[in-house]
Each structure stands twice: as structure tokens, then as C-alpha cells.
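FORM 7B: Structural annotation worksheet

SECTION A. Query
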Amino acid sequence: MWGGTFCFSGIDYIAFILLIIYVGAIAILFLFVTMMLNLVVRTTFDMSNGLLAGFVIGGVLYGTLLTVFKFSECGVQWSM
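SECTION B. Predicted structure
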């Protein structure tokens, strides 16, 4: 609430400081919750499924990025 009020009144610096404080507080809250859960981490990982999913998601995001830049009117020239 206060961050938006400061931003709309032209005091952007204070609004960004409040945003950083709030994001940090939420990050610390998540940290404390994960510490309280006391989860056991596996030591062996099967990376084959995650690697394939990473390549697929990365390819989709790369294609989307190229499509956005190709059809945008920001002045960037792509030679494809």
C-alpha cells in the first residue's frame, strides 16, 4: 500500500526501498519455513529427465524470444 502511494506521488526511491524490504522479508519467511520443515535431501539424482525437460523448455523460450524480437517494431534487424 505505501509503496504504491510513494510511487504515484513521485517518490520512486522510497517505493523501491520498501519493495526490496518486503521481498527480503518474504524470502526470510520462506527460509524459516524450510528450516522448520527439516526436509531430508536425496544425495543421488537422475539428471536424464531433468536435462531433457530443460532443453525443451529452453528451446521454447528461445523460440518465443526470437519470435517477439522478429515481429516487434523496436528497430532490431534480424537476418534469418
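SECTION C. Observations
The helical segments are 2-8, 12-37, 47-71. The mean pLDDT is 78.

SECTION D. Sign-off
Analyst initials: ____
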